[in-house]
């Protein structure tokens, strides 16, 4: 028997052409329940969400909302039934103000006239729900990614949803904002609102969710109360196996004057920082959003103006652009792969071999066989799925798109000797993360220096040989691999202790 506000999915089946994406998926989200939905990239999570939102037609099964079973849903029906979805693509309009975005499509009107005062009241009330105090007249494009994410969440709350679906809503958030969101979800839970929470982060599942469903290859691989699951059980369900241990940390070759040396680097958001990255070493930059770590990565990669002094392999290094940095042997993987790294309409093969097309060519002509060999080497190393060189990049899941970007430099990438990455595994599932980390270790073993900017303690624990922690534009401590743990990282990141700490 279905109760009001309950969400029930029964035996849902969806195919894209010959590929079956959902195969008899069933789940129930009770009123006042936070139900986590997990799975590897491409497991079917996004398709299930789009079915709930009326954006995808299914071939078999039903979705029951508010006690009524539906054979199909349209977006209009879904919205009328109170389904509010926060997608990874935030669907905000950058040039419009926060207030305008918060009421977009639901503007209060008297006939053709906008009721601006009421619009502003609705906007302020929605932001207050998230404990945010920001100028509602600011254009959305002026906000950093984390605040844009929170505005998208506030917009969903402003609709007074009867069912809330969050698709990777915490991917761009730091710990305080995740806690803020958690408090909001608890308040909505107390009101009896069913919440479907899609995430790749197991810590969030254990902290917030009541029930978990794991999809693998379009089928339910695990379902039950969170309290009865262990992290290893969930990981096994996601990837179909236990994750292999990471390769042993590579020993950085002893090269006098080699690698990157940074002295008193300054940007708009960084007061001053000095550090080094040796060949074969993976160095992490850790801190909360806005601490300046991304600025450091951008400056090193030539994507942001900076002052100070840098040398690379003993030679003065002052890149004026990303292109000039690449010519110097420095490559950059940005945090927003969709907007800044992937060429969506080009093939997977073209995305991977792009930096080395000229090197592989003969007499100015592309050599497809050579290019394909490099693609398949990257696909095998990283577990790119599907390993279809001709498939457009936009058809790949987010995690596999990130693998294409990493594979771009893994496959040769010219003469790259330093790889800079900013939030390299945001929105990437645990299996794909392991593949990415393994490939980074392989690059380090080849003597390539690696600099990773990240807000995830787990990432720093897993991959970094050393971690430099930033707070408000300054380095506040450095941790060696053996001393990297969540408590030490977050204590330094919040600057709860004074002075530098070197372990």
In short:
This protein is 33% helix and 24% strand.
Structure in words:
This protein is of the alpha/beta class and 503 residues long. The strands form 5 sheets. The chain has a 6-stranded mixed β-sheet with strand order 6-9-10-3-11-12, sandwiched between helices. A 6-stranded mixed β-sheet has the order 18-19-20-15-21-22, with helices on both faces. A 4-stranded antiparallel β-sheet has the order 2-1-4-5, with helices on one face. Helix 15 packs parallel to helix 16. The radius of gyration is 24 Å and the shape is globular. The C terminus is likely disordered.
Distance between the termini: 59 Å
Q: Low-confidence parts, pLDDT < 50 over ≥5 residues?
A: 496-503
Shape: globular
Number of helices: 18
Question: Which assembly state applies to the chains in this document?
Answer: single chain
Number of strands: 22
Classify the beta-strand content into a percent band: 15-25%
Query: What is the percent of helical residues?
Result: 25-40%
Strand order of the largest sheet: 6-9-10-3-11-12
Structural class: alpha/beta
Indicate the mean pLDDT.
Answer: 83
**Main sheet attributes: strand count, strand direction, barrel closure:** 6 strands, mixed
- Please compute the radius of gyration using only Cα atoms: 24 Å
